[in-house]
Design a protein that fits this description.
Blueprint: H1 7-28, H2 36-60, E1 66-68, E2 76-77, E3 80-81, H3 82-99, H4 114-134, H5 141-167, H6 169-192, E4 196-198, H7 213-238
Antiparallel strand pairs: 1-4, 2-3
Helix pairs in contact: 1-3, 2-3, 2-7, 3-6, 3-7, 4-5, 5-7, 6-7
């Protein structure tokens, strides 16, 4: 049965409009962030998203974890539709443009306690470890791979800036929650319309309000990656005078004139 919407239709109808609106607001509003620094961070995040997520989808799709409705995609590269690669670009932009609307004003030196870094690393490694165990069973295969895939990034981010992220937890939670909730709704609609189909065999079968918990987790962790990465990127640039250069001289970056 042919899906009533294509994957590209989902982008055009539900992903691009909020991106355009939020981007316009970030550009126009004096209190929003815009300019070289935030946008350079976004470019880095997009590149990392493409590099890190591509192997995951190209492993899970041929395993039958999910597939796409008849006529729902234009073409595939490797095992992944080109619309999926496009989503790897669009989702970070959506999350970032929402984040740019939210003030994050926490003043903390880059030096944080070693114990905090170890806790952060241990948390991410623990998540990856649980994921590794869960990949051994068919019904937890999707969930296990998500946790195994997410754990290393969380270990890096939390190991570097867990203390700062905790201090900035309120704006970070708001920044993660809004795009996550919105994409949960879009994902649920696409599943209902048959744009993509999630395997019953490879999921735990828990789907509150019709959305498989694995799908909900995917959008939660990926938006967390984007928000945490950009928040810490701004933190590092804002405290750049604390970073020694290779020559042992402190690097100082003056505020950009085109950034608010």
């Amino acid at each position: 049965m042919t899906a009533p919407l294509t994957y590209l239709d989902v982008h055009l109808a539900f992903v691009l409009p909020p991106i355009l609106l939020l981007g316009w607001l970030a550009y126009r509003r004096d209190r929003a962030r815009w300019g070289v620094r935030p946008l350079s961070g976004l470019v880095i995040v997009i590149g990392l998203a493409l590099v890190y997520t591509t192997p995951l989808t190209n492993h899970l799709i041929p395993e039958g974890v999910w597939w796409y409705g008849e006529g729902a995609v234009v073409a595939t590269v490797w095992h992944t539709p080109i619309e999926e690669y496009l989503f790897f670009v669009l989702q970070p932009i959506l999350a970032a443009f929402w984040l740019f609307q939210i003030p994050v004003s926490v003043d903390r030196p880059l030096a944080i306690p070693l114990a905090h870094r170890l806790v952060g690393v241990a948390g991410g490694v623990g998540i990856a470890g649980v994921g590794w165990v869960l990949t051994g069973d068919t019904s937890t295969y999707y969930l296990g791979w998500l946790l195994l895939w997410a754990g290393p990034i969380l270990a890096i981010q939390w190991g570097f800036g867990l203390t700062y992220l905790w201090d900035a937890r309120r704006p970070v939670l708001v920044a993660v929650a809004a795009p996550t909730g919105y994409l949960w709704l879009v994902d649920w609609l696409a599943i209902e319309l048959g744009v993509w189909i999630i395997s019953d065999a490879h999921t735990v079968g828990y789907a509150p309000l019709g959305l498989p918990v694995e799908e909900a987790l995917f959008f939660l962790v990926t938006n967390a990656f984007v928000v945490q990465g950009l928040v810490m990127y701004a933190w590092v640039l804002g405290r750049a005078d604390e970073l020694p250069t290779l020559a042992g001289v402190q690097a100082r970056i003056s505020p950009s004139s085109d950034e608010r």
